[in-house]
Amino acid sequence: MNIILCAKQVVDVAEIKIDPATKKPVLAGVPQKISDMDKNALEEAIKIKEKHGGKITVVTVGAPDAKERMRELLAMGADEGVLLTQPPQTDYHMIAHLLAGAIKKIGSYDIILCGEASIDMFSGQIGPRLAGLLNIPQITYAQQITVEPTKVVSEKNLGEKSVTMESPFPVLLTVTKESNQPRLPSLMAILASSNKPIHEWSTTDIVSQTLQPKVQTLDVKGIPMQRKNIIFQDDLDQSVGKLVNELAKVGVLR
Amino acid sequence: MVLVYSDDPKLIAELLNKASDLAKQLQKKVIAVTIGSEQHAKDYIEHGADVVIIAQTTQQQFKAEEYTSILLSILKEHSNEIVLIGSNKNGKELASRLAARLDAGCVIDATNILLKDKKVTTERVVYSGNAIAVEQFFGSPQIITIPPRVFDPLPKNPNHKGEIIKKTVDVEQSASKIIKVQEMKSEGVNVEDAQIIVSCGRGFKKKEDIRLVSELADVLKGRTVGCSRPIAADLKWLSEDHWIGLSGHKVKPKLYVACGISGQIQHIAGMRDSGVIVAINKDPEALIFKSADYGIVGDLYEVLPKLTSAIKEKIG
Ligand SMILES: Cc1cc2nc3c(=O)[nH]c(=O)nc-3n(C[C@H](O)[C@H](O)[C@H](O)COP(=O)(O)OP(=O)(O)OC[C@H]3O[C@@H](n4cnc5c(N)ncnc54)[C@H](O)[C@@H]3O)c2cc1C
Ligand SMILES: Nc1ncnc2c1ncn2[C@@H]1O[C@H](COP(=O)(O)O)[C@@H](O)[C@H]1O
């Protein structure tokens, strides 16, 4: 089974601070990590490999330092990495073409796995875009994945309903956060991962056409959150009384 | 043209409001698409569509590959600059796949659309609710998905005239199959429409204790209980229709009471637009207090019963 995992390096959103003056997020210096659900996707890949054998290749479009984060995925159980250096101005259209190009260059694939969404941008756009470019079936929000020799059966979670789908290979799946608990690599595995290859491909090797963004980011604005922050913490009965009075005053009790 | 599609008729009515507004500014027409349903066509016209295309196909159940092929064949005949798609899970994967097939730009979950120097410009929440990205399209079509309740539907206008076109489409069949559809356990709550929500988090020790939030919700005449992700996703104490946050429902009630919720950014992302936010948490350092108008530092097991009876007394 040839499995390809698309993994993205993202800023750790929980560590973002807000500039008090501009209210904009301060991204410089925020630690980077592999997007959460991409690890869930890798966990599924490892389980498939354990059952059917095969190879797991991780593909990332990102900054050169993404190599360090990819090591973590190799330690968890991926076999090889491919890193494409991200061009300065990118959008989803370009990233999807770069990933599709890399996947075509890798050649044979049965299953492509993505996260349901990246934790910084949270679009869930790359998976379906890739499936569209490669013209293969897609199963998004996969909660449970069972791989058989000639097909994948997967339950997708739509909230109010769950849809079970079946597809032959090749197929692309996007994996939810609830699907599993990603494993932590052992110390042995961490040490061994340094022998696993990470190939760095230049984007010009991948796509012949000149890629131009279709969407440009003009600004990243802060979200002003003006709250009163009135906190009662003395005597409980008094606190409750004061809170009820305040709520009545602002007109939400009726 | 401005094309509108969703598998949810309620969402189409909301999108038609924005579509009509954009169409007016750009002097274009609004086309709504329904797959197979004649029943909705008249409604869409009364909500502002100039044209409704009823795609006639044997394909009734949603599959992104096949629905993409339906929209592609419609888009081939009508030059569409803007495509608005309802942002539920089906809509997002449809829009993204469609964008790839057209080599088009796509913005998922836009909370605002405007024309800046005549260029389509969108706003969306990024970094788990820490910021808003302002993005602008180059070239067309421009594909945008819009979540529920970002725009209000226009009131129905029975005098609005439009054309209904039936179109038979050949669908490129996908190799995948739907083998089972199962309704999930749901308690039928609709947090998105609620005016008052009382939410619970991991500060609750056991499932039965959620009674404390329902009792408070009852006296507040809100009757709506929400929760953080772990309560629905991990502990499964409540069904997913209660789940509020980045990966759950986005709500904007007049009053939101968060009990035993730490206030991680992903939870805040779902409730930050609430009118008044109240937090109850035993940890004075809890992040939730930074996002609250009022807070009580205390053990929810003591605070909630007292608060419930004090409110009952106040409003009788
Ligand atoms: C990609 C992604 C998406 C996510 N999406 C969502 C989402 O949509 N919605 C969501 O909610 N989360 C989401 N999360 C998870 C989020 O990061 C937090 O883990 C989650 O919100 C924490 O839930 P909690 O506040 O109930 O639990 P905890 O963080 O464990 O907080 C429990 C709180 O209860 C307080 N407490 C304990 N006992 C008492 C007591 N007796 N009385 C009063 N207070 C008490 C504690 O002080 C603590 O603050 C997401 C995470 C990721 C990575
Ligand atoms: N730059 C990237 N490199 C590799 N995979 C990516 C990249 N961006 C997104 N993905 C994949 O697409 C998924 C969804 O991302 P998004 O569309 O940004 O929500 C991620 O979970 C990854 O699996």
The oligomeric state is heterodimer
Count of structural domains of chain A = 2
**CATH class membership of the largest domain in chain B:** Alpha Beta
How would you name the CATH homologous superfamily of the largest domain in chain A?
HUPs
- Main sheet: strand order of chain B: 5-9-4-1-2-3-10
- Gap from first CA to last CA of chain B: 55 Å
Shape of chain A: globular
Main β-sheet of chain B, in a few words? 7 strands, parallel
- Span of the ends, CA to CA of chain A: 62 Å
Q: Which two protein chains have the largest interface (Cβ within 8 Å of the partner's Cβ), and how many residues from each?
A: A-B, 83 and 88 residues
Order of helices and strands of chain B: EHEHEHEHEEEEEEEEHEHEHEEH
What portion of residues of chain B is helical?
25-40%
The CATH architecture of the largest domain in chain B can be named as: 3-Layer(aba) Sandwich
How do the helices and strands line up, and which of them pair or pack?
The complex is a heterodimer of chains A (254) and B (316).
Chain A: E1 2-6, E2 9-11, E3 17-18, E4 25-26, E5 32-34, H1 36-52, E6 55-62, H2 66-76, E7 80-85, H3 92-106, E8 111-115, H4 126-134, E9 138-147, E10 151-157, E11 161-168, E12 171-175, H5 187-192, E13 198-201, H6 203-206, E14 215-222, E15 230-232, H7 236-249
Parallel strand pairs in A: 1-6, 1-8, 6-7, 7-13, 8-12, 9-12
Antiparallel strand pairs in A: 2-5, 3-4, 9-10, 10-11
Chain B: E1 2-5, H1 9-26, E2 30-35, H2 38-46, E3 51-56, H3 64-77, E4 82-86, H4 89-102, E5 105-107, E6 110-116, E7 119-126, E8 131-137, E9 142-146, E10 163-168, E11 177-183, E12 196-200, H5 211-219, E13 224-227, H6 229-234, E14 255-259, H7 265-271, E15 276-281, E16 294-297, H8 300-315
Parallel strand pairs in B: 1-2, 1-4, 2-3, 3-10, 4-9, 5-9, 12-13, 12-14, 14-15, 15-16
Antiparallel strand pairs in B: 6-7, 7-8
Helix pairs in contact in B: 3-4, 5-8
